[in-house]
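Slide 14.
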Amino acid sequence: MSESVGRWLRDEIENAILSNEFSPGERLDEMVLANRFGVSRTPVREALMQLNAIGLIEIRPRRGAVVIDPGPHRVYEMFEVMAELEGLAGSLAARRLNDEAREAITAAHKRCELSAKAGDSDDYYYANEEFHKAIYAASRSEFLQEQCTQLHRRLRPYRRLQLRVRNRLSTSFSEHCAIVDAIFAGNGDEARRLLRAHVRIQGERFSDLVASMATR
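Slide 15: predicted structure.
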């Protein structure tokens, strides 16, 4: 099965969990999921392993995959820490920027622009992921890059869904523009401030999305 189909399957299960279609404590049966999405059990198992790694489900002995709920407070705490880590990465990137890093950030930023103009929130998410990873790499701190990547992975489903809040794509891209300007200008303090605010507001937008789902 192709990588894009595997990613689609994982995203669909994520969506069902975050929209409470699959409730906390519910067991996810591999065969039921395979039938629902028209795939074999192997890609379902792989998707569940990925979701286990980021803490959306827990694979338990004799029970299999069970949905867990980290709770909004826990998610908010993760966004708080992510904001500080990304702020540091942006500050270091502004100080240590080289031509290779500039090109990587520019390319990812351009892809974000195209996705935002198309109004494609899912494609924008993946472009956005590359944009942030380019900033982590530009910090030239291997340890910081590892920590940012690890927490980014855990927050992936929440960061993706918050992009579906009205006007979030255009606002997010505008924030990216200011971040790029600060990094390319070598303004570490401004890059730190902007990235911290950018990540913190993602947590707030996710809360908005959860509230909107509750009223449907």
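Speaker note: The chain is about 75% helix and 5% strand.
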